[in-house]
Amino acid sequence: MSAPTFRLRFLPLVAALGCATTSPSTAPTPPDTASASAPSVPVSKEALTALKQELVKQHGEAQRARIERGVDQVAALWRPEDGDLAAFAREQFLPTGPKLDATFTRLEGLFEQFDGHMNELGRELQWFTDLDLGPLLPVEPLLAAYDPSSNVTSDLFQAKPGFVVLLNFPLTTLAERVKEGPSWTRRQWAEARLGSRFNRRVPAAIEQKVSQAIADANLYVAEYNVWMHHLVDAKGQRLFPQGLRLISHWNLRDELKADYTDPQGLAKQRTIVQVMERIVTQTIPAAVIDNPRVDWDPFTNKVTVAPPESVEANAPQRPAKADAAPEPDTRYARLLATFQASRKVDPYSPVAPTRIARAFELDRGLPEERVRTLLTQLLESPLVPRVAKLIETRLGRPLEPQDLWYPGFRPGSKVPEAQLDALTRKRYPTADAFARDIPRILQGLGFTREKADVLASYIRVDASRGAGHAQQALRRGDFPRLRTRVEKGGMDYKGYNIAVHELGHNVEQVFSLYQVDHTLLSGVPNNAFTEALAFVFQARDLELLGLGQPDAASERERVLNDFWQAWEIAGVALVDMATWHWMYEHPDATPAQLRDAVAGLSRDVWNRYYAPVLGRKDSPVLGIYSHMISYPLYLPDYPLGHLIAFQIEEHLKQHGPLGAEFERMATFGSVTPDEWMRHATGAPVSAEALLRATEAAL
User: Fold this and answer.
1) By residue range, what is the domain housing residue 561?
2) Where is this region: Disordered (predicted)?
3) Which of 185, 233, 514, 665 has a 20 to 30 Å separation from 592 between CA atoms?
4) Which among 345, 371, 508, 347 has a CA at the least distance from the CA of 15?
5) What's the predicted TM-score (pTM) here?
6) Helix (H, G, I), strand (E, B) or coil at 225
7) Cα separation of 98 and 85, whole Å?
8) Are residues 440 and 553 both part of a single domain?
9) Could you give the dihedral angle defined by the CA atoms of residues 614, 617, 620 and 621, in that order, rounded to the nearest 10 degrees?
10) Quick one: average pLDDT of 576-603?
């Protein structure tokens, strides 16, 4: 799976403000800044009651429910400095009719422009940190950390349009959307999304601190490379080819998968797992990170100066010193900074007073406990040891920790990665070459030639500094961007696999912006859905290279592959969730304490669900995923995405072709997850389809 795609919606404009429920005892106190006073209600209950009665008398009994709800919504976020609430309500309340309709249309068009242009400004500020355009200027991280949208929501409250929205349109709860949503019109759904943009009033300075923390974490992850030729064993032997530079965790994991076809694969895999565990525990020497001028034995942790003949010609300038001092918990300092910045948002979000709550209730649209139930349903399935036994039979040995990422069910998985690399490098020497091939790829996926050409005309392709990601457009007239890593010799298979995944995101983004009926509903319910649609593309990457066509045998393999991947990432998601709960329970923790906690939580989940299947106890490897650092609380979207993707695939088997069905699904917009799924496949989000199919495949 690739780096995630945040749906950067202007709902307070920073997708980095997601969150989770805590008990009152762990609720944070307001931050100590002059601009960060907690919201207060400057009007008495009696005065509000009188105001409501006055408005009902003026506009009629039929408007009572709207008046009472709107006045309460405004009062919850109104501050003394905002002035006379009653005078504002008398002037700005609009009864049902042409003027309310015109206001809705005006705001919908305006917010599309706000979202789109702020998104474009953010993209420009992050241009050089996101793309592989050479060494960074010292100013680039500062530019990438600046969020031009951080003041907008605060300004719209101060200037009062935010209160116009709250006075006239509903601020719904998740429970309301789930219960009443199936009977809503599309206009009602759009109104609900309009109201949700103003569900909290966070000072701009706090928004900016969150953006700064996220940007710092993203840059840290984007530059976290390991030069594999410089990993040596106790005899000084090198297992990996010269020039192989892998980003953590994405490329490390993908190299591990590729090594199943290598005669030296088992030794390579054990080495990669050791590297991963040292990253998680922060026992990795700081000197070896993105440094090809030193050699490192990850088992003994010994660092030596690399012989000159072994150093790559394109090696960056790094100190060539045999320094084994560990990385100083930088990984967890980055995560802790994001937590502390996010915690300052909590007092200003009464509807979801922690980042965990915001992540599940507001951003994901699914209660945390329902997500946890889906994850444990996968992890505790009696099918797991049966699939594991099949893998063990194929490998001819007991399973080990690296088999968490066993890829052998995928079509073409027995093709050596060197052969795949040669094929993709020849076909895609540059990012532009991939861009030119998009129409052919889309036709291969089942889109008509005309539709493929139109879709390709909207998508721009860039060479990524990190592993890769898709960046959406948020206004009609802008173009989504596909980013993937393109090394100097061309796009290797890892980069191509990610590019096909990101293309799935981009196609969804074109449909869900340009063809949705209300731009307030653009997008999909949450990131799990865009991941699911991207998985549908990614699963066909080898077919698009001319390697393997679907048949009954490959269909069985596809089911088992989907099950094993979902099982793998479900535990990773639990670690991410547990980490955020731990931080809320220990708000004053140091990076070292957080390091020990994450390693401990990773081991706990491993020992409960994975050690009985994969052999070794106490591995912290589940904590390796870089999303935990740069995309907080994103990881639960991946197992959800696998479940959703499987339901989509099952539907496509009966109701294809892929192109037309993909378009129908992607244009439905940002409603609740179950409502979207019922429209797409006829059933709500569930693990049952995958479990039933796996049982049948076995």
Assistant:
1) 359-409+549-697
2) 21-41, 307-329
3) 233
4) 345
5) 0.85
6) strand
7) 24
8) no
9) -20
10) 98
